[in-house]
Each structure stands twice: as structure tokens, then as C-alpha cells.
Amino acid sequence: MKLPLALLLAPLLTLVAGLHTSNWAVLVGTSRFWFNYRHLANVLSMYRTVKRLGIPDSQIILMLPDDMACNPRNAFPGTVYSNSDRAVDLYGDNIEVDYRGYEVTVENFIRLLTDRVGEEMPRSKRLLTDDRSNIFVYMTGHGGNEFLKFQDAEEIGAPDLADAFEQMWEKKRYHEILFMIDTCQANTMYSKLYSPNIIATGSSELDQSSYSHHADNDVGVAVIDRYTYYNLEFLESEVRDTSSKKTIGDLFDSYSYEKIHSHAGVRYDLFKGGADAARSRLLTDFFGNVQNVEIDGTRNTTMIDDELISLSKTIARLSELAREEELAAAKNNSDAKPVPRKVQVTKPLSDDNWFTKKLVGATALAGCVALWGLGSYLEI
Amino acid sequence: MTKDKMSFQATAGTAGLFVVAAALRLLLFTAFPGLPNLLTGRVEISTPVTSFKRLQEGLFLYNHNVNPYDGGVYHQAPLLLPLFSLLPDPSTYPIFTYILYTLVDLLSANALYKIAESGEGGASRLYSSPRKEKRWNGYVVAALFLFNPFTIATCIGRPTSVFTTCAILHAVAKALSGNIFTSMLSLSFATYLSMYPLLLLPPMVILAYDRTYNPKVPKSLAQLAGMCTLAVSASLALLFLSSYALTGSWEFLSSTYGIQLTLTDLTPNAGLWWYFFTEMFDSFRSFFLGVFWLHLSSYTPALTIRLRQQPLAVITLLLGIFAIFKPYPSIADTSLFLSLVPCFRHVFPLLRYSFVTASVVLYGTFLGPAFYHLWIYAGSGNANFFYAITLVWSLGLSLIVSDLAFAVLRDEWEVERPEMRGKEIRQI
Amino acid sequence: MSADIKNDGDPKPSSAEATVSLPATGIAIVERKEPPPEKESDTRRRSWIVLSFWLIAVFIGLPIWWNTTTIYRANLPLTQMTDWADGKACEPVFPLRIALDVGSLPEQEAQNLLRLTQHALDDLNDFSGHHLRLQLAQAPTEATTQVRDDSNVALTIRLAPGDAAHTASSSLHPHLPILDVQYPPNSLPTANSPSSGLATYIATQLGSTFAEEQNIISYLLETSSITPEHRPKGISQEVVDTVSKRMTRSLKYSQTYHLTFSLFTNGPVPSSWDIEAAIDEYMKPVLDMLKTIHDFTIDTQVQLYASPGVQSHVLGKEDLSSFINAAEWPLSPSIGGAPTVNFIVYIGNQTIGVPSETDAAETSQSWMIPQWGSVYLLAPPPAEAAHVSSETLKQPILTFTSHLLTLLGTPQSGSVPLRLSTLARIRSADLLLRASSSLGSLARLTLALPSISIPSNVANGVVKTIHHLELACASLGGAKSLEHARIAEHEAERAFFEKSMVGQLYFPDEHKIAVYLPLLGPIGVPLVMGLLNEIKAWKTRRSQKLKAA
């Protein structure tokens, strides 16, 4: 009786103990239009932070529904700032937006998470995670009780999100998820989640609004939301590089009503090990990209040498020979004709039988007229 | 003697009318060489299933031995292709196309002339209006058609819907003259080209029945309906088979009628469908396609039953309804409907909203292109602008249709209750 | 507003208006005169009209509604799918055939040795998932086809009598899957001895040869979705740890990998390199060898003035992980559809200094990043040469080749041919388990999300997957199993990630009311009212008739 239990636990243990091997970030802004400048700035600030902490662009999915940098109302064209001191241009010259404009839809977001995309979708726009990937999901926009508005037309419901995460869990598409959302009544968005290994946090409770932090008088609109602002403040000041040992718990403890003006929420119960385990996770486990490198010793480098190269040459030749033999044998054995495949080829344009066309046309016309004439003749 | 002379005069007058109408069209074609192409591009005139540009694309593919339905641009009947391939290339010798479209308009006008002359509008077999004396002759009706700006714009924009118009008008004219088979053949042509005219079959059968009714040898309506259905099916089968022989596959069915049934091409038009289906939830799309089509077709039986005594009125009203609720309506459909309305000159005094209707239609006519421009070219408006104006346009058309229906019914009712003539009515 | 007409043109079609609005019914004149009674024919006509609308609604409308709004859910073989996921459908046992080439030994003795060695093997092996079965090479009893088909034989043991003075010794043939065993002639078992030193020796040798493979496969089984009662006995925790480390390092299986070779320099030179020649010389043979398992596509790039993520001259272990400047180096993985393996040669003045390994600190120039690729630091060429010769690239490329083998998950012990065949077996086991677990996920998802539609090609994919899983399972350990497992995994992924399964995820009933009501209300109300009026009129008529009678 004990043995199967131990066996059952063994993979779980290894899973918990086992480290993640890659970090991904999904950063989603969901609102359009100039007066929502701050939402775009929120997302771009997060983008900058995770990139600073080492997550490569190929592992960041950035969804921006509008282009504030090129908005005609922008007094500082080509830039986006999240602070009125305008010290850091978030747009910079090295930004890779994966989904932009009207591509930012609920459907595309769900497709991204569940990876139900067509063949045509490039790898850079896909979330190619596996069971060893930690994902940081950040969303911001206008929301309400259990929904978040996308653009002006649609909304994603909390159950949709929960189902999407569950599909990811089923298909082993993540190791752990940190879900962060900054919107009005944000905490309702994660209330429906039910898949394991998710830490969720939001800016405000049910019936609470999320407020902006400050406005830039020259830009003319609010430039960042409070919750995101204080998250960033913590990350910028406490997590200077990937070697930082600050934990999720430290970040969450820094939230206060005085700063955020709403009750930021946290959810640990889905996480294996509960609050303690969740709080002890390093921030760099989600915001940074920690690669466990393996340095070669002197001995390892000699693993492959000229001898092996020549050896593999021989083996390759042998297997090539074997394959040829096999092919020849297959050819002898089966006289099955190759199945003609229907291949879509571009057809060269030709006006070869134009005369036939005219003839067909004349026949068709004559046929119709004859039918008409026959009808008229018979009826008279 | 006098009668002969009069008819001769009428013929001479009509010929003059036709010459003037043709001259006007050819003048417009030649004096403004940019006009045909401009109008061809207008969404109010060219729809995905009638556009002349798309026809040319299909024609090009056809002439170069490529399946015309490849590329998903051409959605029109296959037999149009060999017919148009007989003409010289429209881009180099456009005059032949102009002449063809002018001729088709004249043929339609001729059929309309016959319809008006038959007097069916005011007096059918079962019903004779007390006001039937007050009517326009064929000359006026044909003139109203030929000089209707919508008809002229359609002719210059060259959508293939003019062929459907012509076929429908001939079907009516032939039914009126008692040529049942040619009438059904004509209706089949119309159906083959645009599909929706099939819904006109019941009133057309009744029209033909009434016009061929001989009190001495009464035929049963069911028998005639069976014959007509058979004739239509046979000629449609013939057309489909020849299309199959031409294109080598049945693919044309889904590329022509399938497009209309499923509304795959959401190019904006004057109708109500496109906007609705751009906004529709995907999971309900097919359901509401069904609802819209059922809505369109449910008028036929009810109207046919209600206005059994006046089949031409049924056809007219149905054409009006189609012009509003079709998947891809254009002003060509409106001009067809409006061309038959003058046949009911006798009920015009009973119309109640003529001023409002006229204003609304004019409003739609002028603001439609303007709003479309604001949306597509100026970028200062959005799709709602154009959609709002198509709503107004449809409202105007539906006012005409309902007002006409009211007038026809009131006319009928006054036969029953002669004492009510000219009195106000109210619902109790 | 009069109800005298049938208001056909109204945009909201109202069938019932046709019924309430007959010329003779609803009209009153100003003088309050009672309208004359309705004519019999009018009543009948009205009934017909109501009937025509209802017929259309019921006989065409209802079927359309039913057909278009029901969510299509193809029938999936759910129990079969969960069986696969739980490991009930296939016993993951790899029967490996080991041929015993006894050379000149007489038949009797050979059989005897075979029997004893098999015994010893069975005693030694406690992992039932991996079954080594001995057979005699060239044995007359074997069907000739089986003997000729080398691919089903994992290893051939070639016995040769050696020096009597020495104990038995063995060596793996470098080119072919052959274990050469030299034995002292006197160690051959006698006809009825219960055990033999030689037999035990061979068994131990075999055990150690296949130990790594056994560990990996049992690790795969353990981490899979297979329920404990259906999988063979497990392995110890330490082994799990080491294997787990190795498995996390290796890339997920893909038929094709894309190899990107990048030369980054911190200055303007060198600006070109002999990479093609170097690859051809030092890596191509290995790639060719791996052809049976993977395909490779290759591209290269040179980037000047590339600054690394860490600027310090001596790189500590912490620095190495952030050495890659992900923000600025164009290491895009989006070339083609295959996963990318990055190999970076960095020319600069930086060196690796890891304090713990004193001897390695000076010489180590490269490090590997799990599941990603590897980096090699190259000292700047003398005299600012603009070109890096193929000879200079020899060491980097050889290092990359060895890293590639590791990243692909190739076992580290044994001769090259054995490692390759082991890799194929590991990969087929891996794919088989992954496909099975995908099936299980899909089955659970189907049950958990009743509103998700399941198109028929998902069902087709599932059927295909199961078919190929069965084939793969039947040929486990054989040559075909990798191919079948590959197809099965591909089909399972395709079925799970079916694009159209995302459409309507969450659509609560109140949303449906919001869709139906405003659109169907204007149609439905007149329809129902018309019918009710008809029924009422019919009732009145009947009661009048009864009275009259």
C-alpha cells in the first residue's frame, strides 16, 4: 500500500522540486484611444521591466491595441512615458509588439493561451511553453465584475479565462503562473480560476475602482495606474538584477490601501503548498529569466574529437547504404504506383482556345434564343 | 380604324421614346468616359453578386482557361461568361457593352410597356377596381422606367442585375399575354441569374392562370401550377446542366448561390444584411442567416393568399420587399420595383405618405454616397454612418411598399363597402 | 394608424398584422355604425395566411434553429482515450532482442549458454519495462526474415575464445551495435551446470550497457500520466534526480531542429568566418548520423559591435546566465516552424572564472544553456584579422556538436551506434507517452467543457492517433515504433490544438436571451398573437354553432 503512494508522490515531488527552465510573459493591454494612454503605458512599463530582467523578446507576448506613440495627439511623437518626469521612453527603439491594433481580441488572446492557432501563425506570436515554463500574465484595461473589456467591442469573462488556464494546465503548458491584473474590480477576474499552480493578484476588490496615479500635464492624460505604479516601483528599486532574492511575498506585502487607493487582492489557494510556498517564490522566477547554465570542464570539451567525427562519418555512410538497400528492396517488392497527389500549382495563363470559347458563347446564346423562340412558336 | 391609328401613333411614340432613351444612355457613356467605371465601383449599384468588375475578372480567367471561380471574386452565373466572351474586350471596345446594356434596358422597357398596356393593374380577372379608368398608358410607364435616374445609373454601372430585371419583366409580360411556357422560361432565366426570383413563382402562376382562364373550359389551378413548376424545373435543370458542362464541376453552385445563402462576402451595400452579420456572434451566424432567409421567403405565400385577386400587385409588392430584404440589394432592384409601381396609378390617390416617402428616399439617395465617402475615403466617419443611411433608405422603401399595399387593400375594400369611399378609417 | 392593411413593408415583419387587419374587421366609421359581419371567405382566408406563416416557422424555421444552434460535438472514444492515458491500453515494455553470436561453438553448448545467460539476465533485471531477450544469431530455428532484419536486434554479442589465462573481457564495437566478448575457453558452462561465470559476466555487461536507457525509460514512465498500477516498478530517487536533470536539459522532441550559428564580436572585426566549411568538417558527419531521428536546418549570422548582457571581464557563474543580451541580439526563434537551437561564438576579451573548479577555470571557454543552446567564448584573433578561419572554429564547433548531442537527449554512455539506437527508443517512448497523455487531456477537456464544440476532424485525429499508438506499441523497441509514435504524437497534438475548438467558450444563457429576444420578439409576438386570435375565433364559431344546433 505504501509503495504506490510513494510512487504517486514521486512525480509530484520532482515537479515541485524541479526548476522551471524558461520564463514567459504575456502582457496585455485591452483598451484603445488616447484617453487610455495609461493602460498602454502600464503594459509597456511591465514590458520594459521583464525585458530588463532578461526575458527575451521571443518569450514576451505583447498585446497593444493602440499605438500611443504615433497618436496625432501625442505632444511627444514616437514616445510613451509612464511618468511625468519623462525620464524613460518606454517605446525606445527596440520594442516588439506581437499583437497590435485590431489583432488584440478575446479570441486571439484565448487562442494564444491555448495555442489553438493556425499553421500560418509565426512562432514569435505563439506561447510555446511546456510543463517547465513559468508564465507571467499581466492584463490591464477597463473591467467590471468578472469581465475585462477588450477594445470597444467585446469582453473576456472570468470563466473564459479560467477555462483557458485549465486547458493550459491539462496540456501541461505551464509550470507556474503569476497572474496580475490592473483594472476596476480586478479581483473578480481571478475569482473563477480553478487550475493549480497559479498565484493571482489584482488591483481592486468587487465594486472598487482602480485609480490612475498621476497625469502628465504636457501629455495631457494620466500616464500610469496606481497599482502598476507601485508594483513597478518595487521591482525597479528592489529587484535590480536577476540575482535579487526578493520574493513574491515581499512584493505583495508592499501593497497598501494608502498607496493604491483600493484593496489589492492576492490569491494563493491554487498554488501547491499554499500561501507559504507561493510567497517564498522569487520574483525573478516570474519577472526574470533565470537560465541554469552548465559550464564545460576541460574534460567535457574533449568528449567529441576527430575520432568521433570520422566514426560518425562511417556510421552515416553505413546507414545510408542500409537505407539505399532498403529502398531498393522496397522498390523490388512493391510495384505499387505512386499515388498521384493533387498539388495546387499556379496555372499559366493562356488564351489558347479562344475560338472554342467564342463558339461555346455563340452556342449558348443560340441555345437560349432557340429555347425562347421555340417556346414562343409553340404557344402561338 | 381609329383604334388602329391610335395604336400606330402609340408605336411611333414609343419608338421615339426608345430612341431618346438610348441616345441619352449612349451620350452619357461617351460624353463622360469616366462615368461607367465610377458607377461600376459604387456599392449602391454593384454588389458582389452583380458587379461588372467582378464579371470582367471572371471573364478574364475564363478566357485564359482558368476556373473563373478560383480566387473568390466572381460570384455570378457561369453562362454569362461565354455570352460576354462573344463581345470584344470591354476595356478596349467598351461601346459594345454600352450598346448591349442599352438594348437590355430597352427590352425591359418594352416588356413594361406591354404590362402597362394590359391594364392588369386596375382590372384583373377576379377584381376590377372602381378607379381603373384612371391609369397611365404603356408609354408613360415605359418612360418613367427609362428616365428613372436609378435605372440610368444602373445601366451605366453595368451590373448583371439588369439581365435579371429584364427577365422578370418579360416573365410578367409573357404571363399577361398568356404565354405560360415562355413566361416560366423567363422566370427560370431570372432565377438562374439571381436565385431570388424563384420566390415569384406562386404569384406568377396565378397571374398566368387568371390570364389564360377560359370560362368555357375551366382548368384547375393545381394542374397549371404543376405544369409551371415542371417547366421551371426543366429549364433550370437545363441551365444548370449546361453550366456544369461549361465549368466541369458543380462548384459554381456554391460560388454563386452559396454566396448569397451564406453571405460570405460582407462588402457593404444598400441592404440590411451586411452590417448585421459583421456584428453577429459567430455561433449564431448560421441561425440568423436562416432567420433572414425565412423572413424573406415567408412573404410569398401570405401575400399570394391575401391578394389572390390581384396577382400583379403581389408581384410588385414582393419585388419591393426583395429590394429591401435581399442579401445583396442594389438600386437596380429598387428601379425594378419602382418601374412596376406606376401600373397602379389608380390607387395613387389612396397613398397616404407620398411626401414623406419621397423625402426619405431622396434623403437616402443623396446622403448615402456622402456618408460612404466619409467612412471609406475621408476616414472621418465609421461604418455606422453608412449603415444608418441604408436604414433610412430601407425605411423609405418599406414605406412605399406598405403604403402601396394599404392603397391596394383599401381599393379592394371599397368595392365591398362602397359607402365608405373617401371616408377616414380607423382601427376598432 | 389604421390596421386596415397588411403592413408588409414594415422592417420588422409582422405576420400577425395580416390576421388582425382585414378590411372588413377592424373598421369603424365616425358615425359609430357597427360594421357588417365578416364574410365567411375572409375568415377562411385569414386562417390560411396564419397557417402559411406557422407552417414556414415550424417546418423550416425550427429545423434551421435546431441545426444551426446545437454545438457540434463529434463522438470521441473517451474510454479508449483515458485507457491510453492511464496506460491500460499498452503495456510499455521494450523487448530488446540481443543476438548471441557464438561463433564456432557447437549448437548444444550455445543453447546452454543462452539459457544460462537469459537466467542470469532475468535475475539481474528488476525493471520489467525493459526486457532483454537473448537469441542465437544464425540459429536455424529462427525464421530467416527475422535474422536478416537487423533493425530488430538491438545488440549482437560476438563471443570469441580468448586467452585462457585472463578473465573474460568485453568491448563495444565502435561502428556497429556489437559487443565483443573474449572469454577464457574453460569458462564455458557444462551441459547441466546451474550457473556459469561467463553467463553472469555477459549478463552484467549487458545490464550495465543498458542501465542508462533503463533509467531514462523508467523515469519517463514515472513522470507520465500512466497510473501507478499500470507501470513497471520504479527507480530510486537519486536516479530520478539525475535523469530528471538530464531530461530538463534536453529539448522537446521535434522532427526538425533549426540550428542558428551566430558570430558576435564586440568590435568591428572579425567580420567574416568560415562557418560553412567548419560545419561541414566538424558537425555535418554527426548530423548525417542523426538523420534517422532528426532533420536539421541551418542558418548563420554575424553581428558586429554586439555587447553582451554582462560587461565584466571575468565572468562568474551568475554572470553566465545573463550573458546573452536577449534584448539586443537578434536571436529570433521564428525562422520556420522548427524549434531553434542557438550556437553563439562570442569574440571578446572576457573569460570564465568559476572559483570552485580551479583547473577548469582557466581552460573552460564554453557553457550550455538547457533547452536553448550554447555559447563559446573565443579570444580575439591576433592582428585584428577580419576573418575567422575554419581551423579556429574547430574547437567551438566540436564543442557545439557535443552540446547538440546533449541537448537532443542522447545518452552519455556506450558506443555511438548504441547511443543512437537508445536515443531512438527513448524518443519513441517519450512520444508514445506524450501522445497518450494528450489523448487523456483531450478526453478530460471534452467532459469538463460541455459548451466547446468538437469538430469531426478532432475525432479523426483521435482515431488516427490511437491507430498509430497501437502500431507503435506493438513494435516497441523496433525500428518502426519511432515513426508510428511520431505520427501519433503529431495527430494527438493536432487534435488537441484544433483551431476551431475555441469559438464559443463561455456563453451563458442570459446572453442567449439577449441575442434572441430583440431579434425574434418582433417576429414571435405577432405569430403567437395571430395563432391565439385564430383559436379564439374558432372557439366562438364552435359555440355559436352549438347554440344554433
Topology summary:
The complex is a heterotrimer of chains A (380), B (428) and C (549).
Chain A: H1 2-17, E1 22-29, H2 37-52, E2 60-64, E3 99-100, H3 106-114, E4 133-140, E5 143-144, E6 147-150, E7 154-157, H4 158-170, E8 176-182, E9 198-202, E10 212-216, E11 221-225, H5 226-238, H6 248-253, H7 257-260, E12 265-267, H8 274-280, H9 284-287, E13 294-295, H10 298-301, H11 306-333, H12 354-379
Parallel strand pairs in A: 1-2, 1-4, 2-3, 4-8, 8-9
Antiparallel strand pairs in A: 5-6, 6-7, 9-12, 10-11
Chain B: H1 2-31, H2 35-40, H3 52-63, H4 80-85, H5 94-118, H6 138-146, H7 149-157, H8 161-176, H9 180-194, H10 201-212, H11 221-247, H12 251-262, H13 273-279, H14 282-306, H15 311-325, H16 331-340, H17 354-378, H18 383-416
Chain C: H1 15-20, H2 40-69, H3 78-86, E1 94-101, H4 107-124, E2 130-136, H5 144-148, E3 153-161, E4 169-172, E5 178-183, H6 197-223, H7 237-249, E6 256-265, E7 272-273, H8 275-282, H9 284-289, E8 295-303, E9 314-315, H10 317-321, E10 340-347, E11 351-352, H11 358-363, E12 366-369, E13 373-378, E14 387-388, H12 394-407, H13 416-448, H14 456-474, H15 480-496, H16 509-548
Parallel strand pairs in C: 1-2, 1-3, 3-5, 6-8, 6-10, 7-14, 9-11, 10-13
Antiparallel strand pairs in C: 4-5, 12-13
Helix pairs in contact in C: 2-16, 3-13, 4-6, 6-13, 8-12, 13-14, 13-15, 14-15
Compute the separation of the termini of chain C in Å: 40 Å
SSE string of chain C, helices as H and strands as E? HHHEHEHEEEHHEEHHEEHEEHEEEHHHHH
Find the structural class of chain C using helix and strand composition. Answer: alpha/beta
Question: How big a fraction of the residues of chain B is strand?
Answer: under 5%
Give the C-alpha Rg of chain C: 39 Å
Distance between the first and last residues' Cα of chain B: 54 Å
The number of helical segments of chain C is 16
Q: In what range is the share of β-strand residues of chain C? A: 5-15%
Helix content of chain C: 40-55%
Outline the biggest β-sheet of chain B: none
Low-pLDDT runs of 5+ residues of chain B are 1-6
Summarize the main sheet of chain C.
5 strands, mixed
Radius of gyration of chain B, CA atoms, in whole angstroms? 22 Å
Helix share, percent of chain B = 55-70%
Mean of all residue-level pLDDT scores of chain B = 89
**Mean of residue pLDDT values of chain C:** 76
How many strands of chain B?
Answer: 0
**Strand order within the widest beta sheet of chain C:** 2-1-3-5-4
- Biggest interface: chains and residue counts? A-C, 74 and 78 residues
